[in-house]
């Protein structure tokens, strides 16, 4: 039988008599359909997605409570950019980023600059643009050229920074990670920084492994560079994951605006901020760290307002959800939730690291994320890609992928533990993972193939 992929078909039981049960896949249908028919078509296809709660690949939140769901439904139609029509939502946005500025120890949280964004990627773009624009202003004041900006960061940086450098014509300078330097830690930084460096990106929660880059050590290395060369290079902290973990679990860790060299910080509200996607936040140390010429004033639907996001119209509902969580959880509630999450991650890391075939790369010492690789065994006839496939058969999505450039010979698997992953669920995962490893060890297969990960950070 020929597989005809041109149409999307619906079981006749779900349609009324005489109504179409087949729709063109890549064209808008000519005729109308009942709402329940269109719903059923999409519902049936969406069932093929993985179970979000069992997706241990994603950092993005997959659960909120019933009151949050109610608030979300009540705010579907709010456009965040339309601050004149939705002044209460706009005011709540300002409250949120000021709360975050205080959480990150900004010198004057009520009088700095910040905004919500669609996600951390947009926030990173804004942080990078502010660094570039400040560098351009300084160079022009010195009568120096501005045609060769560069940005220094780890080779394990999130892909949005590659996009930033590509879109905004900045040379990326990647400091390679290695077995000895598993994160950007300030080692050999002077080899990458020069008069064209707009800034250094430090990651609080590396995507590949969840490890913190030691922002204080990076800042100290830049202090030494300034002493030697006179170059004053600022830091943007990409705290997409760690920005809502470190203040609660590692409050004494100096990574934020307590370090004078940190100019801006971003976080994903839809990661450990515990909100549904997509919401991000960025805050600058002081208002002057956001150049005025990046702020656009627009007259929109009768109101005059400043805007400095890359997007224009975007949802306002997630901003209300972030405020809901700040009110509902408070400092103590966030501390309790994050502690429970990291306890589960460390339990999983301990159980998985005890398996003879697996060796931890890191043990969830920072955010509730950890990775492992295979122990050395020339007789082993399976790979972590095989283990990932076996786990997917049981419903668990646990990606396997190579580490970044200069360490691509190392393949790891990573688990992200989020709110909603209980100790009970974690025990089932351990049971299933052990069974998968036992199966692979017993299987009589051929040599491992050369598959590559289907996961992209």
Automatic annotation (TrEMBL):
Modification N6-(pyridoxal phosphate)lysine occurs at: 271
Pfam families tied to this protein: Pyridoxal_deC
Keyword vocabulary terms for this entry: Decarboxylase, Lyase, Pyridoxal phosphate
GO molecular function: aromatic-L-amino-acid decarboxylase activity; glutamate decarboxylase activity; pyridoxal phosphate binding
InterPro entries in alphabetical order: Glutamate_decarboxylase (IPR010107), PyrdxlP-dep_de-COase (IPR002129), PyrdxlP-dep_Trfase (IPR015424), PyrdxlP-dep_Trfase_major (IPR015421)
E.C. numbers: 4.1.1.15
An individual GO BP term: L-glutamate catabolic process
Catalytic activity: L-glutamate + H(+) = 4-aminobutanoate + CO2
Xref: NCBIfam families: Glu-decarb-GAD (TIGR01788)
UniProt record similarity statement: Belongs to the group II decarboxylase family.
Identification of the protein by name: Glutamate decarboxylase
Organism, scientific name: Corynebacterium kalidii
Origin organism lineage: Bacteria, Bacillati, Actinomycetota, Actinomycetes, Mycobacteriales
